[in-house]
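Subject: mismatched residue count in predicted assembly?

I count 652 residues in my input, but I want to confirm that the predicted structure covers every chain. Input:
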Amino acid sequence: MDWRLALDIAITHLVTKKKQSLVAMLGVLFGISMFLVMISFMTGVNKFLEDLAMDNTPDVHIYNPVEVKNQTIVGLEAKEVDSGSKHDPAAWYVVHHQRPTDELPKIKNAQYIFAELEKLPGVVGVAPEVTTQVFFNNGPVQIQGNINGIDVKKQELLFGLDKKMDEGSLDDLLKGSDVIVIGRGLAEKVSARTGDRVSITTPAGNNLILKVVGIFSFGITTIDDVQSYATLATVQKVLQHDRSYITDLNIKLKNMQMATSFAQNIKKELPAQRVEDWQSANASILAGEKIRDIMTGVISFTLLLVAGFGIYNIMNMNIINKMKDIAILKATGFQGKDITAIFLFQSLIIGILGGLLGLVVGFVFCYLLSRTPFPEGTIIRIDTYPVNFIPLHYVLGILFGFLTTLFAGFFPALKASKIDPVSILRG
Amino acid sequence: MIPILKAVNIIKFFKDPEPFKVLNEVSFEVFKGQFLSIVGKSGCGKSTLLYILSTMDTDFEGGLEIKGENLRQRRQNELAQFRNENLGFVFQFHYLLPEFTALRNVMLPALKLGKYSKEEIEARAIEKLKMVEMNDFAKKLSSRLSGGQQQRVAIARALINDPAIIMADEPTGNLDKANSSRVFEIFRRLAKENHQTIITVTHDLDFAGGSDHIVEMQDGQIIRA
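Triage response: the counts match. Full output below for your records.
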């Protein structure tokens, strides 16, 4: 079969019916471009939220939770025990509403655990932290906040904290004692600028003056409004604890997808500590991601299906209009497969051209969206809509366009090849 | 002499709306270079017979041989190939492809056959158009041509692969006197000069009268041959 002849006839048909071909092409164009916009935007949102979460979440986080022991203390009245072996529930002593014991929230033996963790395979590094709540005093007003004592070098290396600095540098923490960097929102609340001093009150009631050497921002209001960082030694001093006082260990893994299994293994070794992987720490974000993925899938499928039906209808109509031509081609020696090829070529040309135009239009829409300012929010700070530009999506777009039109065009083309020329030619 | 086309005991039923025997044991032979006309009243089965002879209608009983080849066992695609190479068609309503020029219409069956290069096919097509005096209209869209002109282009198309047999279903049915005699002259010449076989179905008694041989049909049977 000479496919070039079939292609030639297909192109002649398309060119003579310009309007109809254009409408069919617009259907594909619309489907593919909207598919691209959908998938680029949705994955953009996913990536943005994930990055945001991961900025503030280590792959695995070990800490000592404040826990209320949930078991109930039960005792039996001595007399009842004596009287028989049967336990009468009415005679039991039950202690409700227990209080937690006065236990320091530090990780016991932290130095040793830290050293052991660093040796494990799959671990890039471990950053120790001391976190505590403090009050920042702004005149008579007390503002709640947190101070995280960090190992500056480790934190930079593992979590890139230095990249969040708006003013000053994280390394300035190492240059003096009693210095901190604070979040942008917190800085506004305590009306402090770089170089100013702020007064803090610890939970134990101690007052201290710390010097602000930098301001950072994550873009997440709940962090920027309360968080501040200082060196481990500074926070240990603020809390009046010794150098072994560590409340958190943040682990960075080579492969963050291994976090769950890694956390489970560590948990066996550290029954007293809470070991949390980033997935469970960000469960709500991951759930949102899943929902957006499903939504993207459903809408994309619908768009392509609609485009496919458009082509199916137009090709069917086209074939009904071309019955006489098909009959004459068959009479003069064209075989069924030649006819199939002619009409399949028509829908594929529509699909490929429409798809390519769809990619261009989709890209333009994506670009415009990525330049559109995002409305000012209170929870997260973001300048424009997050849009991903991933070449794979464009490949998928053209592939889907091709497959959709192939399917949609196949059945009408097959129908055309089965037309009985005699019944048409005899009238 | 060996017949170029041989039909043996052809029986054909129409099943819709109720079984009806259109052709009842029709047998006849046609020889090379013969100009044959099949005549008869409407509904006598002459068109049905022509479409069976054309290999397009395969739903019948009996034997069919063209150029010594038995065509009964062939599949649709093989028959299409056979038609492309050995048979030319002219229909009552001229049936050109409206999107293509006269020249392209003539070229299509040859392009399908693929025996010659595109340039040769074009030269041959122009030659065929010259033969039917349509070469001046070669570059015109076929939908812009008049009925008589279209019919002559259709004849040129039927000739492009130099088929052994040219079949025509009422070729003059839609034409005026002048165009009819023109078509007749072309057929006459093809049979005489090119020794191609012509089989036409016609109502036109003048047309039939000019042919070599007349087959008259009535109620699905040949009554005079």
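The interface with chain A takes residues 47, 51, 54, 56-57, 76-77, 80-85, 89, 91, 93, 95-100, 104, 108-109, 111-114, 157, 161, 169 of chain B (CB under 8 Å). Marking this ticket as 'not a bug'.
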